[in-house]
Every structure is written in C-alpha cells, then in structure tokens.
Specification:
Blueprint (H helix, E strand, L loop, with lengths): L13 H12 L8 H7 L3 H28 L6 H9 L1 H31 L4 H5 L9 H19 L1 H28 L6 H4 L3 H4 L3 H19 L15 H36 L5 H10 L1 H36 L17 H17 L2 H29 L14 H20 L1 H27 L2
Helix pairs in contact: 1-8, 1-12, 1-14, 2-11, 2-12, 3-11, 3-12, 3-16, 3-17, 4-5, 4-16, 5-7, 5-14, 5-15, 5-16, 5-18, 7-8, 7-14, 7-15, 8-12, 8-14, 11-17, 12-13, 13-14, 14-15, 16-17, 16-18, 17-18
Length: 455
C-alpha cells in the first residue's frame, strides 16, 4: 500500500469508490423535490423526462471528470483540474468556495434535515426548543453529528471508508426493498402514473417553459455528487481504471433508483396528492403502506442523509489538502496521519465551518446558496476537458470522455441555463454565492503574498 508525500494512503477499490458516488448523490432531495415539480408543472410525463435529463447531464459530467481524474489522479478533483487549465488563482477560488459552499453548506443542510426527520422518533427533537442566544436544540444536535463524522473520518481512513460503505449499502438496499414492497403489496393505482393535473392545461407556453426550468433546477440539485469519488483519486489503488468506472456506475445506479422512486410517488399519491408537498416520500408511503410505511421511509431518509453527509465530510478535506500543498501559508492542511491516512487538520477546519453555518442559516437558504456555487464550479471543471484538449493535447489520457465535445458542451449549456433561472428565482442566495467567489479571490492574493514573504 503506497502513500503520497502528505501521507494519504492508496487503498480504495472500485466498490468503495462507487459507494462514495452513490452516497454523495442520494440525500434528502429525492424524497422532497417531486412535490414542487408536481405543483409547478402538473404533468407526470414531463417530470419523468426531467429526471431522465438530469441523469443524462450527470452522466455527461461523470464522463468529463472520468477523463480529467484518470489523467490527473490527485486529491482535490476540480481544484487540480482548474489549476492545470486556468491557473492557481481560479483554482484557489474553487477551493475556497468548496470550503464554504461546496461541502460545508450541503453538510450543514443535510444534518439540519436529518435532525428534523429524527423528530419522528424523538418527540423532543420535533419541538425544536429555543435556547439562549438564538440557538435551538436541534442545531446543537446537528453540530454533534458534525463532530461525530469528523471523529469517524479523522480516526482511520480505512474505517471512514468502511463506515461509508456500510451506510450506503443499507441505504440502497432500503430503497430497493421499498420499491419492491410498493410494487407487490402497495395500495397504489397505475392510473395515478398517467394522471395529468388540470392546472397543466391552464399554463401558457412561456409558463410551461418557466415551470420546466424551475423543475430542472430541483432535479440537477438532486444529482449533484456525481463526482464524489474524484476527490479521493489519490487514495485509489488504480485510479486510471477505477475512477471513471466508479463515476459512471454510481451515476447510472442512482439514475435508475431516482426513476423508480418517482414512479412509486406517482403510483401511490398521484399528481394532485403530491402537488405542493415537501415530504413526498412520506406522503406516498402513507398512501401505499399506512403508518408503518411512514416510519420505514423516515428511517430510510435518516440513513440516506447520514450517508450523504458522511461522504461529503470525507471528500471536502481532500480539496483543502490539495491547496495546502500549493500554498506554504496553508501547509498545515497538507498533512495526513501516518497511521490513519486521514487529513485531520482539514477535517477539523471543515467541521468548524459546518458548525457555524448550522447555527446561522435555514435549510432552504443553505441549499440554494450551495446549489448555485456547486453548479458554477462543477461547470468550470467540466470546461477543463475542452481547455486541456486544446492546451495540452499531448497529455496522457487513459480514459477519454465519450461523445466529446458534445458531452461537455451539453453539460455546460444546461448548467448555465439552470444558474440563470436560479439567480432569477433566489437572487439573494445566488448573489451571496458570487460574493463568496470574490472573497476567495481576495484570500488568494493575501495568502499568495504571505507565502512569497515566507520564502
């Protein structure tokens, strides 16, 4: 088992890498967003089409990251790709944004949602009692989960990967069992799947386009995480072979599960029953299975969210580890324990930021802020495929993105369209995301100057 100069160990195989992708993608989103789409669009056929489009876009992104990651199998994923394509300034900004919006904000949103769903089992959490200084009890429980995950992943890298494998396997098995139960014993109606809401026929052409765009924003957010294993490329035993495979297999599996879950929702509750509902998984399971189904799906939700937060807790510090190597002033981040193989300082830094976001923001604000910035920098990273094909045609590429240049261009075109609509719908959160980018630029010049002074 080899290691890099900072102490990261190469031990991750294809199965664990694929589990990272699946865990990163499947969180609370798939169990909540279909209700918004049902209300805005009102047509099951178009909603299914959007989930297919989202899967295709994620697959395009996975193809591009497969090429980039196989060519540059280092910790940090897009930080490395952007550095090699556009220079250290843009790379540092991507890493800075990753610390706040790319990983910390989604982890914070996920753990706040986890504690809310745990209120089904623990009535004290359902009350969310207010404490001193504007803090709430649920926020303190969520912060506790932050440091539990930091402890798991700072202990031994193998242990963290093993934990992620187990919770992800439980999550996938649970989803499959729920889908089978819905098909075999669920009290649904196939006519619900093709039922169209009367509100759909009241929409004009422009209204339908607006509804499609808004719905696609929700869908693309649910597919974020398709690049999960790329951040740990430096710890994979055979990244040139296993990294592209893990991205494609993980994305393909999640797409199938997402389509199956949406079929279950419509089969159980129909378009009218889902419209405007936030917790569509619970609504559909109540119709299909009664109260027992609600309990089981809530438990599945909790496991799904915990697995997603675990995967992001593991992936994010690899980005900070990477720019700790490039900037001497941040060199403390580029260290991993000789025995643990985990970047403990980077994990602790991320834990502090996540904790602060939890106690200062609402879930909807956190997720909108995170979604815009994740789309922005994943798009910039995907564009690196085109930039490096032009700039460095001689670069060894063990894997090449299928369908080039159409795959990156399709991803970039739809991502830009999605960000434009996101900015129009939530300008405050989207503007805050852009402020974070500017702050990253300021931090780059300050740290570069400090590093130059240090030698």
């Amino acid at each position: 088992m080899s290691e890099d100069e900072g102490g990261l160990l190469r031990f991750i195989g294809l199965r664990s890498a694929m589990m990272l992708v699946v865990a990163s993608m499947i969180g609370a989103g798939i169990f909540t967003t279909t209700g918004f789409q049902a209300q805005d669009l009102g047509h099951p056929g178009y909603i299914f089409l959007l989930w297919i489009v989202g899967g295709v876009l994620a697959f395009c992104g996975a193809l591009c990251f497969g090429e980039l990651g196989a060519a540059m199998p280092e910790a940090g994923a897009e930080y490395v790709y952007i550095r090699e394509s556009y220079g250290r300034a843009f790379a540092f900004m991507s890493g800075f944004v990753a610390l706040f919006a790319g990983f910390s904000a989604p982890i914070a949103g996920a753990l706040k949602a986890l504690v809310r769903y745990m209120g089904h089992f623990f009535p004290l959490l359902a009350d969310d009692a207010a404490l001193a200084w504007g803090l709430h009890a649920n926020d303190l429980v969520a912060v506790g989960f932050v440091w539990l995950l930091v402890g798991i992943h700072a202990g031994r890298a193998r242990g963290g990967i093993g934990f992620n494998d187990v919770v992800t396997l439980v999550k996938v098995a649970g989803i499959v069992l729920v889908l089978l139960a819905a098909a075999l014993v669920g009290k649904g109606d196939l006519s619900n799947v093709v039922e169209i809401s009367p509100s759909y026929y009241e929409l004009g052409a422009m209204d339908k386009m607006s509804a499609m765009a808004t719905s696609l924003i929700f869908v693309t957010f649910c597919y974020l995480g398709w690049n999960g294993s790329a951040y740990l490329a430096a710890e994979m035993k055979d990244p040139q072979r296993d990294l592209p495979r893990s991205l494609l297999l993980g994305t393909g599996l999640v797409t199938v599960l997402y389509l199956g879950l949406n079929m279950m929702y419509f089969y159980g509750a129909g378009i009218e029953g889902l419209a405007g509902e936030v917790e569509v998984g619970l609504v559909a399971s109540r119709e299909l299975f009664g109260g027992v189904g609600v309990t089981l799906v809530t438990l599945l939700l909790c496991v799904s969210i915990l697995a997603s937060a675990s995967a992001m807790t593991m992936a994010g510090p690899r980005v900070y580890y990477a720019f700790g190597k490039d900037f001497p002033a941040l060199g403390f981040l580029h260290r991993a324990g000789r025995k643990s193989g985990a970047p403990a300082a980077a994990l602790i830094l991320q834990g502090i930021v996540v904790s602060l976001i939890i106690v200062t923001g609402r879930i909807d604000q956190i997720l909108q802020y995170a979604g815009f910035t994740l789309t922005l920098f994943s798009s910039l990273a995907v564009s690196c495929v085109i930039a490096l094909r032009i700039k460095r045609p001689e670069m060894p590429r063990p894997f090449k993105a299928w369908g080039y240049p159409f795959t990156p261009l399709l991803f970039l075109g739809v991502s830009l369209w999605t960000m434009a609509w996101a900015f129009r719908g939530r300008p405050v959160e989207s503007s805050l995301a852009l402020v974070t980018v500017v702050a990253g630029g300021i931090a780059f010049f300050a740290i570069s100057r400090r590093s130059a002074q240090d030698g």
